[in-house]
Amino acid sequence: MAATKDSKDPRPCSIADALALVGEKYSLLVLREVCLGNGRFDQLVRNIGAPRDILATRLRRLVDAGILTRRAYSERPQRFEYRATQAGLELEPVLMTLMAWGDRHLREDDDRPMVIEHICGNELIPAITCSTCGEEVRHEDMTAHPQAPGWTVTGPAAGPSAA
Fold first, then answer.
1. Could you give the CA distance from residue 129 to residue 145 in angstroms, rounded to a whole number?
2. Secondary structure of the chain: what % helix, strand, coil (to 5)?
3. What global pTM score does this model have?
4. Do the beta carbons of residue 52 and residue 43 sit within 8 Å?
5. Residue range 2-42, pLDDT digits in tens
6. What is the Cα Rg of the chain in Å?
7. Measured between alpha carbons, how far apart are the two ends of the chain, in Å?
8. CA pair distance 17, 23, nearest whole angstrom
9. Distance, CA of 135 to CA of 23 (rounded, Å)
10. Taking a C-beta distance cutoff of 8 angstroms, is the pair 63, 56 a contact?
11. What is the spatial distance between Cα 152 and Cα 155, in angstroms, rounded to a whole number?
12. Are the C-beta atoms of 34 and 68 separated by less than 8 Å?
């Protein structure tokens, strides 16, 4: 049986659901480091600057969510390294897009802390393209079609289904 929608409930949203997992401070930075090959706890502490207890909590949550895996690399003392799962690797384009946005809007051209090279030998400039037509996606070319019952683009639908 479907739950009834309270008029104060927020819009159902996959962005909100994803942010609940990776939107906390340090979570995407953990993923950045793991994707760069730095999956050991001490590397993560050093490269992210997170307090050890908070980092441990974020790592546990990312492992529990299936975004990272944990593998022992030392028995005495017991130490683990973290690697991205397929779900974690699928977040890498999000990281690249965030980095490109930050480079464009928060830094000077000569002040970028990292450049990613694509296999073709050129600098990676991420772009979102339509998988059907291959065209680059632009805001003015998209139309939203809410699929959650009782919701329109502007918010809760009026009428009995909105109650």
1. 19
2. 40, 15, 45
3. 0.84
4. no
5. 445 556 789 999 999 999 999 998 999 999 999 999 999 99
6. 20
7. 16
8. 9
9. 29
10. no
11. 5
12. yes
